[in-house]
Amino acid sequence: MRGPPGWLVRSARAIGWPVVSNDSAAPEVPRPAGPVPIVVLVSGSGTLLQALLDASADPAYGVRVVAVGADRDGIEGLARAQRAGVPTFVHRLRDYPDRAAWDRALTEDAASYGPALVVSAGFLKLVGEEFLERFGGRYLNSHNALLPSFPGIHGPRDALDYGVKVAGATLFVVDAGVDTGAIVAQCVVPVEDDDTVDTLTERIKQAERPQLVEWVGRLAREGFRVDGRRVLLGDSAGGADPR
Ligand SMILES: Nc1nc2c(c(=O)[nH]1)N[C@@H](CN(C=O)c1ccc(C(=O)N[C@@H](CCC(=O)O)C(=O)O)cc1)CN2
Ligand SMILES: NCC(=O)N[C@@H]1O[C@H](COP(=O)([O-])[O-])[C@@H](O)[C@H]1O
User: Where is the Formyl transferase N-terminal domain positioned along the sequence (predicted)?
Assistant: First the structure.
């Protein structure tokens, strides 16, 4: 995958946030002062979201969760956002005539908060073309398996069924495939002989939370670009320091 195309760079910059790009014609702009705004998408208990909320309480982290979106009501992830005073929005697939209409509503709501990055943290829906056109190259997903093994929504179960000896989590830049985007970071945990899906899922999450916090912070603070299968941080990407 190439870096974001020129029009996407311009649309990100239109809201005041630089996207480091392969497009040498796209002018660099200085990063605005203040924390980098992110929108987080959730479908469940939201412990990854909580890790981001906790980290962003420290101004030195440099990231602010400006909104939390979900595909369902009544989940602890939304309650965590509300307790933190963060606005929420919900779009249930079944409330829309088709998937494209749902994708458009999700895209528009997320975009209305002006995020520099969107982060899926346990969001159990595939986003569509409109979402990827708006947020392509700046939409991250944390997945509870060591990609490219065990994509989908049952990573720990599929890993156990296969009999692997290590499992883990992958943070990647989402593309149009399912869990196929360029990898930002991976962490590894052992699989124990007596593991159940629940124990392995929890062990993975314990490693996944600090990984997510560390890398969302670095990507947001330093800028990045996608070069083929590699994700390069601002300085190593040869781009201008976004600060
Ligand atoms: N276009 C993409 N959207 C998203 C990706 C992605 O790689 N490409 N990653 C996800 C999260 N994800 C795993 O990390 C994931 C989410 C959902 C599915 C999926 O098959 N969902 C079904 C519904 C399944 C169900 O609810 O039982 C669906 O959307 O219809 C696979 C992987 C974030 N979005
Ligand atoms: N493929 C998507 C997927 O399965 N995502 C996984 O859901 C969990 C969310 O936990 P949380 O709700 O406690 O943050 C995380 O482990 C995340 O990788």
Answer: 38-214
Please count the CA atoms within 13 angstroms of the CA of 4 that sit on its side-chain side: 27
The ipTM estimated for the assembled molecules is 0.94
For the Cβ of 113 lying below 6 angstroms from any atom of ligand 1, the answer is no
Is 124 annotated to bind a ligand? Reply is yes
Annotated ligand binding at 126? The verdict is yes
How far lies 211's CA from each of 7, 21, 48, 148, 234, in Å? Answer: 31, 24, 10, 18, 19
CA 48 / ligand 2 centre spacing (Å): 7
pLDDT in tens, 213-226: 999 999 999 999 99
Contact 79, 101 (CB under 8 A): no
pTM of the model: 0.88
Compute, in angstroms, the gap from residue 107 CA to the centroid of ligand 1: 15
- The span from the CA of 39 to the CA of 87, in Å, is 10
Please tell me whether 205 is known to bind a ligand.
no
99, amino acid identity: R
Question: Residue 57 corresponds to which tokens in the numbers above?
Answer: 């309480």
Ligand nearest to the CA of 72: 1
Structural domains present in the chain: 6-233 (3.40.50.170)
